[in-house]
Specification:
single chain; alpha/beta; Rossmann fold; 5 helices; 5 strands
Length: 147
Amino acid sequence: MPATSSNFDGKVNWEGTPRRKVLIAKLGLDGHDRGAKVIAMALRDAGFRVVYLGVHQSPENVVRVALEEDVEAIGVSILSGSHEELVSDLIRIAREKGLKVPILVGGVIPPEDVGKLKEMGVYEVFLPGAPLSKVVEMFKRAVGEAG
C-alpha cells in the first residue's frame, strides 16, 4: 500500500518505495562545508535519506556511523589536500569493519589524483564544478537505482 501523509515516516517515498540512505561527511580538518551541504540537500531532494555528519570527521567516525545507520553509500568532501591519506584510511577501516558500500569523494582534488583514488577503491571522484545532476546520478548508480 502506498504511503500516505498520515503514515509517512521518511523511510519510503510518497509512492511507497523505500528511500535509499547515504552518509555525507567532511573528512579531516577543513571547516568549509557549504559544498557538502549543497550535495546533501540535492541528494535529499532526489529522494535519498541523508545522514549529514558535518565537519572535522575522522575516517573512524565515518565508518562507525555508516555501520550504525546502515547506509548504502558514503560521500566525503575534502578540501585540505590530504585526500589520499584520509581516503586510504577510510577504505582500510571500512574493510577492517566489514563495511562494503561505495565511497564517493569530492572536493579540491588535483585531476592527476583521480586515478589513484579510484585504484584505492573509490567509486567516483567529483572535481570542483561537477554538476549536481551528475553527483545525484552517480549516487543512484552507486546504490543500484540508476535507470
